[in-house]
Amino acid sequence: MPEDQLKESESLAVIHAPSILNNVLRARIADFLADYVHAIDDDRLEEWSNFFTDDAVYHITTRESDEAGLPIGIMHCRGRGMLEDRILALRTANVFEPHTYSHLLGATRLVDQGDGIITARTNFTVTRTMQDGGGDAFAIGKYLDEIVVEGEALAFRSRRVVLESRRVDVLLVIPL
Fold it and tell me: From CA 35, how far away is CA 13, in angstroms rounded?
């Protein structure tokens, strides 16, 4: 192998060689992301707000709106109180056909921003199963997250849910 190619491959190996600490943190974040979707898929929605900081932002929008920088979203919650109110309304006031979700997560790309903040991007597909047993690909998109790491605790400071399609089913009552 020519010397310049050898140096390039050596530098790439160094860039992509994860440290043990990074592997532990990556595993913790992977578990955190899985726990989040399992809480939703298993209808443990009262636990949903516990994944967020007190002042967190949860925002669902479309890719088209996100790329255009439009601030209006399909759902916007600022602070844990709004997240809890969303679930309380879902349980007591909203009328909708019963259904369940099943999340499929893609590989997560993590970037350490320093000061205990990790940014993450995870592609997802959510299938929805209706009460009659019929199912469909309900939502496809990406999660763009800011995750706060404080000791052993992880929490979303921000979770932006960017949907691929601008056509969104009106039955979006359960969080994604």
Answer: 32
Mean pLDDT (the chain, rounded): 88
Q: Which residues of 12-21 are buried (b: 16+ CB within 10 A; e: fewer)?
A: eeeeeeeeee
Match 């993450």 to its residue by tokens.
120
Confidence of residue 165 (pLDDT cuts 50, 70, 90): confident
Tokens 């309304």 appear where?
89
The candidate with the shortest Cα–Cα distance to 140, out of 166, 109, 163, 174, is 163
- Alpha-carbon span 20 to 63, nearest angstrom: 35
Could you give the angle at the alpha carbon of 29 between the alpha carbons of 75 and 143, nearest 5°? 30
Q: What is the pTM of this model?
A: 0.85
